[in-house]
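Lab notebook, bench 4. The sequencing result for the construct came back, and we need a structural model before the next group meeting so we can plan mutations. Quick request posted to the team channel:

Model the 3D structure of this chain.
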Amino acid sequence: MFARIAVCASSLGLAACAPPIQTLAPLPVAEQVTPQQWAEGCSQWDEWDKPAPPYLIHGSTYYVGTCGISAILVAGEGGHLLIDTGTEAGGKVVLENIGKLGFRPEEIASILYSHEHFDHVGGHALVQEASGAHIVSAPQAVAVFSSGEDHPEDPQFGMHEPMKPAKVDVIVHDGQTVRSETAELTAIATPGHSPGALSWQWTDCDTAGDCKTIVYADSLSPVSSDSYRFSDHPEYLAHYRHGLSRLRKIDCDILLTPHPSASGMVKRAATGSLVGGMTCTQYADAVEARLDKRLAKEAAGG
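Done. Here's the predicted structure in token form:
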């Protein structure tokens, strides 16, 4: 029998937990595709809502998203942690993929996110309703989830249609952890692409005892509305660069990103393993180069 325990966001021994739910019998274990099979059905910068099968990344970490938008499940006997849900349509694919792995939606304990834009969290309300899981949010994104509308300080404010609102249950700050019985994910504040953006780091071991440090790094690209200028917001820009600096220095055996192609996930999956390839340092350097190019364009009047 499966008994999901409470999952907590904690720091320095303090914790805020969602209540445990009823005991459920597990679904039968479903057949999984290989990373290569996933890559064969998806292409670089593929469609956001294009269905794709789930596959094992490493240890207890699975890819359950679409071809174009990532969703990551960190499975555990005491409850699963899900990062990102895609669009509302993509959220349906995520739920189907979790079932294909032999898990139930009710076994999801916490729903995390990378950044608070509809293409990555538009399915949060749907998945929360289906699972009863609690949503974890940085303070800057709480109002976005509760209203469904972008933060006024978001560089892309005004560009997106409203999302279905969702209830935030736990607030997590930079450096705090979200943990289940079998996993502990550390939140890294990486604002820039959005004010409440988070990256996540955790260690996962396979049955042979091979442990890898996995990082789900936010998009971080300097994309904005036509009227927004990053150079007009020096404090926001400083936080942006600080997040990149932190990401650049952390351990990172496996790099995952909200848009798979941003870190070459499709190409790596085609080799059979997502270990190696682009490092967190290289990813941060590439993003900062784009940011510098954007600032230079702004300085030139562009």
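The two ends are 61 Å apart (CA to CA).
Will bring this to the meeting.
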